[in-house]
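Ops channel
N.P.: pipeline sanity check, posting one input/output pair.
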């Protein structure tokens, strides 16, 4: 039998949950990456997460899934772009998307910031959307889902 200290057990649990290797209580977590390739948005826009996930993963069933986390890799031209996560009618607080004009045109990884959202409500039924406002480029979206 292998004995793990507190740090080893924490790392093992973190590795298992990150890579969807099972959870306590028979639930598993899956992370899905949605490549956006620096797509530009101006003004008010909506990114429909369920629609993008289903397009990228035909046959994916999100009926009984709970949205745990969304990570938006994005930048704004002047550093004042805003993003909100909307889940089934519940809306998160707006988060500022950093950026500056000199780094906006390039597509280098370091010029994008990670904006993290947790599900804003207990009911994940309905649309999963990111609402954007401003001059924003999105490189990637990571969606973490827990299924029953």
């Amino acid at each position: 039998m292998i004995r793990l200290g507190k740090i080893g057990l924490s790392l093992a649990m973190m590795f298992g949950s990150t890579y969807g290797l099972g959870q306590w209580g028979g639930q598993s977590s899956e992370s899905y990456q949605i490549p956006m390739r620096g797509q530009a948005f101006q003004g008010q826009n909506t990114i429909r997460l369920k629609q993008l996930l289903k397009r990228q993963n035909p046959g994916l069933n999100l009926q009984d899934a709970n949205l745990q986390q969304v990570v938006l890799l994005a930048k704004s031209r002047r550093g004042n772009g805003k993003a909100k996560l909307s889940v089934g009618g519940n809306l998160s607080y707006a988060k500022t998307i950093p950026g500056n004009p000199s780094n906006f045109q390039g597509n280098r990884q370091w010029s994008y910031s990670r904006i993290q959202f947790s599900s804003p409500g207990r009911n994940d039924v309905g649309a999963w959307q990111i609402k954007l406002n401003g001059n924003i480029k999105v490189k990637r979206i990571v969606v973490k889902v827990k299924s029953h």
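N.P.: looks fine end to end. The radius of gyration is 17 Å.
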